[in-house]
Amino acid sequence: MKSKRYFNTTGFCRPEKHYMLDPLRNQSVIFDLIEKEQYFTIHAPRQTGKTTLLHELAHRLNKEGNYISVVFSVESAGYRSITEEIANKKIINSLYSSSGQYLNKNNCPISPEKYTKDLTLENYLIDWAISQPKPIVLLLDEIDSLYDDVLVSILRQLRNGFQIRPKRFPSTVALVGLRDVREYKLKVRPTEASLGSGSPFNIKAESILLGTFTKEEISELYSQHTKDTGQIFSKEVVDRIYELTGGQPWLVNAVANEIVEKILKSDYTKTITIDHAEQAKENLIKRRDTHLDSLIDKLKEERVKNIISAIINGDGVLFDNYDDSLMYCRDLGIISETRPVRIANEIYQEIIPRVLNRNLQDSIEEEGETKWYIKPDGKLDMDKLLKAFQKFYRRNSEHWLERFDYKEAGQGLLLMAFLQRVINGGGRIDREMAVGRGRTDLTIEFAGETFVLELKLKRYDDTKEEGLDQISRYLDTLGMTKGYLILFELKSSTVIPWETRIKWEEVSHQNKNITVV
């Protein structure tokens, strides 16, 4: 019998329809802030459970009976050409229409059509608070969809009301969006340190970043499916899905949904395997659902470009909480919260290089029906593949490196695009990319064999020796003795002839056999 519940990948979750964890399970800080009548922000990447949390919070507060709470979106006022007056009307209409979802008629604010005073959000909230016997907890979603003077105006009206809460203004206001309030100034006045006249929301007591699922939470979520259907996600499968998703809530649900409904076609008698998880990963990447497309859109932004280029090259950047680019990428969920700074999970780590070199991949055509890089026994001929890349690089690199948006990471992206045929032929590439490592490591699995490649930009005279030491240490961690060190010459003021730049050298280093390409 088909399960009544399923893994949700669209909209907010409801316990009667979806497998879900209590969104407030780790959020005692929110209840503490509400009790102390504080204003705060909640921010997290898209599809990490913000809206689910807000709905659950408002319903729980109203049910407990100590507060009046409403969630509403200000997105209707989120376009640049809107005036402050019209924005106020749209936001107030959104609040009024949403209030009926959470409150009985007596607790709802007055209809804006019947409001006789100057229709500003500040006035409207004052009169609503005065009319109510209980304190109001107001949850404003999509706050960072607002632009320019509208954003400043709304924040200042809320700050003004802070002084007269809780009798004459909401006792608690939470601003909810993709980014922390410190980011709002960059939308309004990017070149200035502040918004002027003091921060419009300098009364916030806390900034809450919603986290990803832990491995234990993924197991708990998946166990709900097992309870309903008897179909088990084994510990090994859960561990692999955690590696693929990094606990990102949408990805955790999407991978499970892909396995259960698309790959196994809701046949709960079938065993879920790690191969199913790998297939789900590939399916999601190829299909590029809305979640992944929204991630890809962010790659065009300069701040994101700087960080992703550094990660691909292994370059060093200063990680501190005042580095706006790093914190922006973290808030968007693109990079990990821990050091070293790396792309947040394996699925993002896989799709980002594919997207960045998509045009190149499309232009690389297979030569004949038989894959020329496969040996007669079906194994991968890595030497042949890399020598072909040298030839390709000599002929095409200048043309393609100029076309890349990510020029600083162009060499590595060229190689990854060329190696993509390995995945298309049934293999797998694991990428080890992180800030400050000084290189990128690729582990290629094909037909039961593993190949290790290290990519390194030749910035200094001793880059080769440094690279040999690094790949030797990496091979030690894998228990292997054979690897490939790929060195890319950077452009210099002197023209280096291709005969000098293209090399193939077998080196013995620290009891390892290294091919330097």
Automatic annotation (TrEMBL):
Protein name (database record): ATPase domain protein, prokaryote domain protein
InterPro entries: P-loop_NTPase (IPR027417)
Domain of life of the native organism: Bacteria
Origin species: Candidatus Omnitrophus magneticus
